[in-house]
């Protein structure tokens, strides 16, 4: 696999650029969309009146539909195609594994899986020793929670309001945004408010004040709940779908100190923020903090094959030397996922993709979005880092009243019509291109957003 990872780059069957935008089977968007909606039960959707935009192909930052329209993919789907679509090295890595051993049960040793784990551990801080592979981000959090509970002998998990941790038993209950299904299945979950200065819960007027008050609130929550009952604090290093809220300096290290004071496991969820999204390998790298468990998915392999996992500190890993860890699914550590991870991790390093995300965020995308924010009143705040940005849309800049969801939906369709796939949620547009996006693509995208905001009437 390692030797062959570059094969597709010179393979004449793999064009570097899309050669066609026409549908392969001659059907239109309307036909494929209707066909899909007639038999596929869609996630997170009302099933009546579904009109999914069918995508026929993609390359890099671009995708195209069955009517031949091209789009810049600034959603990276659900913020996972970090290295863009159809990256030849990732396709080659998967193909190589497919032709070698397409599948194998988790209990067998597997060279590709071991290499995937080693490449992931290379990016973790000192003292991390093992990787537990899962099928995605939600079950990564399930398993991290289970590890923390088994190791501490405690039950409760504290997580933030305004967070998303996945749509399975404990992960959805740990989630703190509108998707939470309160007390479905899991017990022992407690929520607290994290720092978010623009809509401060603490009446703070500076990042320092917000940070200090948010830490005080967390510590008081720990004390009120009873530290001896708390297994873990679970946090997205940078909360993603709930609003891309980069924590103020000192917050994550302050949480670490609270966890240390009370013997609590710190789980950092890097499912969305990890592997380059923030311009760092892990988002917490910018925050001087060392968690006990790190969960990942999405960017680790650009989502080409479903996979996720938990990166485990030596201390927690060795707690299971003489006791069974009761976790795992049939497809945990699937070799095709492992092949995609090896190829993605190598491509990211070879192509300097994480460095690209950092540079483009600081020099091109961040300043460009700030200009849009200054120009268009509907943008209440621009915030983010790397290629992880939120435009907070407001009906009124003074009161910060959120723009209604129906208006955001209208704006979203307009942007799509102008040739860009945006990520829109609640009253926000998240600007989340691939980490290897080019300066030219960012310039084209900024022009499209600008045109759309200029034409926008609330
Ligand atoms: N954690 C975070 C921070 C996420 O953003 C997501 C998905 O968006 C998840 C967990 C769940 O991952 P998955 O959908 O792969 O289960």
UniProtKB/TrEMBL annotation:
Which InterPro entries does the UniProt record give? Aminotrans_3, Aminotrans_3_PPA_site, PyrdxlP-dep_Trfase, PyrdxlP-dep_Trfase_major, PyrdxlP-dep_Trfase_small
Listed A to Z, the keywords are:
Pyridoxal phosphate
**PROSITE patterns to which the protein is assigned, alphabetical:** AA_TRANSFER_CLASS_3
Q: Where is the composition biased (Polar residues)?
A: 11-27
Does the keyword field hold Ribosomal protein?
no
- A GO cellular component annotation in the UniProt record: cytosol
GO MF terms here are:
pyridoxal phosphate binding; transaminase activity
What Pfam families does the database record attribute to this sequence? Aminotran_3
Ranges for the region named Disordered are 1-31
Family from the record: Belongs to the class-III pyridoxal-phosphate-dependent aminotransferase family.
Protein name per Swiss-Prot or TrEMBL: Taurine---2-oxoglutarate transaminase
Q: What is the lineage of its organism?
A: Bacteria, Bacillati, Actinomycetota, Actinomycetes, Propionibacteriales
């Amino acid at each position: 696999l390692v030797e062959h990872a570059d094969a597709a780059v010179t393979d004449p069957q793999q064009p570097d650029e899309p050669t066609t935008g026409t549908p392969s089977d001659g059907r239109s968007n309307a036909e494929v969309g209707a066909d899909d909606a007639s038999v596929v039960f869609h996630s997170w959707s009302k099933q009546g009146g579904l009109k999914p935009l069918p995508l026929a192909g993609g390359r890099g930052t671009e995708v195209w539909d069955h009517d031949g329209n091209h789009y810049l993919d600034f959603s990276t789907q659900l913020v996972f195609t970090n290295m863009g679509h159809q990256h030849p090295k990732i396709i080659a890595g998967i193909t190589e594994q497919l032709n070698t051993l397409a599948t194998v049960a988790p209990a067998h040793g597997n060279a590709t899986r071991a290499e995937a784990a080693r490449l992931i551990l290379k990016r973790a801080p000192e003292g991390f020793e093992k990787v537990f592979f899962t099928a995605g981000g939600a079950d990564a959090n399930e398993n991290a929670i289970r590890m923390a509970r088994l190791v501490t002998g405690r039950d409760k998990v504290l997580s933030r309001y305004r967070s998303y941790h996945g749509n399975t038993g404990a992960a959805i209950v740990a989630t703190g945004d509108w998707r939470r299904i309160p007390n479905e299945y899991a017990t022992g979950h407690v929520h607290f408010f994290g720092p978010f200065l623009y809509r401060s819960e603490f009446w703070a007027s500076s990042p320092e004040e917000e940070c200090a008050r948010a830490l005080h609130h967390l510590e008081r929550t720990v004390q009120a709940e009873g530290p001896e009952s708390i297994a873990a604090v679970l946090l997205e290093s940078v909360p993603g779908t709930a609003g891309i809220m980069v924590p103020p300096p000192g917050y994550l290290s302050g949480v670490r100190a609270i966890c240390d004071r009370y013997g609590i496991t710190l789980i950092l969820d890097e499912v969305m923020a990890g592997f380059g999204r923030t311009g760092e390998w892990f988002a917490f790298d910018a925050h001087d903090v060392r968690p006990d468990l790190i969960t990942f998915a999405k960017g680790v392999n650009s989502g080409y094959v479903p996979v996720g996992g938990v990166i485990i500190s030596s201390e927690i890993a060795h707690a299971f030397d003489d006791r069974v860890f009761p976790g795992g699914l049939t497809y945990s550590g699937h070799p095709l996922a492992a092949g995609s991870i090896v190829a993605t991790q190598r491509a990211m390093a070879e192509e300097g993709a994480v460095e690209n995300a950092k540079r483009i965020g600081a020099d091109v995308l961040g300043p460009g979005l700030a200009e849009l924010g200054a120009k268009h009143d509907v943008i209440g705040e621009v915030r983010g880092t790397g290629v992880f940005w939120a435009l907070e849309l407001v009906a009124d800049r003074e009161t910060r009243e959120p723009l209604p969801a129906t208006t955001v939906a209208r704006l979203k369709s307009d942007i799509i019509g102008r040739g860009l796939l945006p990520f829109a949620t609640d009253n926000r547009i998240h600007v989340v291109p691939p980490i290897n996006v080019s300066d030219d693509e960012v310039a084209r995208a900024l022009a499209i957003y600008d045109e759309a905001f200029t034409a926008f009437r609330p």
